[in-house]
Amino acid sequence: MSDIDQNKLRKIDLTLLLVFLGLMRHRKAVLVAAELGLTQSSISHSLRRLREIFEDPLFLRRAHGLEPTAVAGALEPKIRQIVETLNQTLSAPGKFEPEKSERIIRIAGRDNVLSRLVPPLISRLDIAAPQMRLSSLELGRDAAMRAVSDGDIDFAIGYYWEYGKELMSDILYTEEYRVIARKGHPLFREELTVESYIDARHILVSEVGDMSGIVDMTLEKTGLSRRVVASVPLFFPALATVAQSDLIGTLPKSLVEKFAPVFDLEWRTPPIEIRTFTIQALRHRRDEKNPFHTWLLDILKQCAEIDRTPPAERPASHQRDQV
């Protein structure tokens, strides 16, 4: 006990630690006050106490907000670990009762994944947890993983071929591809061949604006290439563009077979073999034994099973995660 500064420990309370982490994340006192349900005066008072305890300014005022000092940056991982340990200690013994919970579920993913999971998730919440609410964000891979790590969301859902040791992955479903074109497109009047496929004009979905993806990597292995003339960051703009042009797209199967009728599109199986990919639910290891996250993961797996038997491919007479 001789190495423990008891005076400083007596000055610390959990609210101070939450204020510190909130300021590190938002860099603005007004946002932290709203998040924690405190007044701005309380945030200012907490910051003064933190500066006294750690004998450092911690945050410097700038035009854009508060800038953490080097001491604050070094403290953040230690304080986050303390708060996570306390949270686990407090929540581990409890039993989650969804029918009584007023919690907000927070998930993130690309628009193709959300369009598959959000509708059945809402339906299940109406029955199993009528007081709970759902907040979903359209986030790319890196942003979604950061949000899980920061505790801003419960699950990041998508294709994650690599993630840090602090995150856990559970597979929801396996996805493959379909080729789409507007109704009456000359490409689909005959059998879709490799030659006719690569000669067509393609649209690509890439969250970072790339002009090549998994299809191009697959073609390159056989010495072939296609003509990508447009790139969009989301899947639904790709569907809308294909519906109003002569471009074709190669998009996830579950998205195509559900929404092609809505956009009046036709689809075919690709004439090349493109590797499948898994859609995963990522959570932080701190939530591995959290009853709420265990329950939510089970619900997400149930939602992923919806419409697992897709409609048959239309006959020719009728009809990376970057693709």
UniProtKB/TrEMBL annotation:
One family name in Pfam for this protein: LysR_substrate
UniProt domain HTH lysR-type: residue ranges: 12-69
The keyword DNA-binding belongs to this UniProt entry's keyword annotation: yes
Keywords of the record: DNA-binding, Nodulation, Transcription, Transcription regulation
This protein's record includes keyword Transmembrane: no
Alphabetized PANTHER family for the sequence: HTH-TYPE TRANSCRIPTIONAL REGULATOR LEUO-RELATED, TRANSCRIPTIONAL REGULATORY PROTEIN
Protein family per UniProt: Belongs to the LysR transcriptional regulatory family.
Descriptive protein name: LysR family transcriptional regulator
Organism listed in the record: Hoeflea poritis
